[in-house]
Design brief:
- This protein has 256 residues and is of the alpha/beta class.
- The chain contains nine helices and seven strands.
- Strands 1, 2, 3, 4, 5, 6 and 7 form a seven-stranded mixed sheet that branches.
Length: 256
Amino acid sequence: MATADEADEAGDDHITILGFGSLLSEKSSRTTFPTLKNFRLGRVLDHRRTFAHPASIFFQRNIANLETLEISSLSVEYKEGCSMVCSVFEVPNEGLSAADAPGDTFIPSQKFLEREEEFEITRVRYEELATSSTSGKQEIKEGVICRRSTDEAYIARWGQERFQKNYLDYGIKTIWGWTEGIRPCPVYLRHCILAAWSCDSEEKWSKDGVGGICYNSFLDETVMVDRATSIREYIDQYPEVMNTEPPDNLKERYSG
C-alpha cells in the first residue's frame, strides 16, 4: 500500500484515479490500468455511492437479469456532507486526457469516454486516508472519478441510435431515471465486495486496518436506488449474492 508522499512523486505526466467499486482492489484495478502506481486509499468528499443505473455491458455479457431487475451497476453522485472510502492511484496520462485541454484542466479523451460511456468523467475532491503514520488534517486534493450523468447527456454525446442499441433494445427505457425497483447485478456486486475486502493483503488484513476500513465503507457507505438501504442490509436480506459466481469466461475479471 503506497503513501501520499510516494504519490506526490508521480509527476505531472500522471493522472490520479479514484476507484469506488471494482477498482477498490489493486488486482482488479490492474486489469484496467496495468501500469498504475502508488495504490492506496482515500475518502471522496461530498459524494454518495449508489447502485442506481443499469449497465449495458451486463446485458452484453449475459449477467443481467431483467426479470428481477438485477441489472444495476455502481456510480457516485454529488451529495453534500456524504463521503466514502475509495482507492487512489496514479496512471500515465497516455490518451486519457484530451490533448487540447488548457493548463491543468482535465478533459477526458474520446478513448476514456468510450470506455466509460454512460458516466460524467470529472475531477472531484478527496483526501488521503489517515494512517498511523499520519496525523492532523489531511490535505484536500483532486482526482478523476466516474460520476452519475443523465440520459440527455448520453444521447447528446452518443446519439439516439447508440442509446437504442445499448439500452432500448434490451428493454431498458432509461439509464439514469430510476428511483425504485432496480437491484445490483449480483455477479458485479459480489465482485465489488470481494475487491473491497481484498484491498489489503490477507496477512495484514484487520477490521481496523485499511482492509477493514475499505470493506466496511463499501457495505455501509453504499446505498441502493432508494438512497436509504445500505449494501450491508441488502446482503443480509439476499446472502445468496455472495454465491453468484461469474461465468467461466468472466471469472478473472469478476472475482475481486
